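Researcher: Sequence recovery benchmark, item below. Answer with residues only.
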């Protein structure tokens, strides 16, 4: 009969594991802050962060935003095709 009394433990965490975890958290934080700042600037172009980051910034028009989305999707598709080989 197999023993199932306790949780299985993996290999102990090394310094490299902690460093990579820190990098993951930092990257996700930067991405989240950037996304929220972009959305906030689109809603209110006179918010404090937008004035600090780029005082001359204005919101995107509908056509500009659509072009941004289309070019981003196209670029992502190209990177996907390159990754597939």
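Model:
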């Amino acid at each position: 009969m197999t023993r199932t009394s306790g949780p299985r433990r993996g290999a102990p965490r090394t310094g490299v594991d902690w460093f990579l975890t820190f990098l993951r958290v930092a990257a996700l934080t930067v991405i989240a802050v950037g996304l929220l700042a972009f959305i906030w600037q689109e809603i209110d172009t006179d918010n404090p962060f937008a004035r600090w980051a780029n005082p001359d910034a204005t919101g995107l028009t509908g056509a500009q935003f659509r072009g941004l989305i289309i070019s981003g999707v196209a670029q992502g598709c190209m990177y996907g095709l390159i990754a597939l080989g």
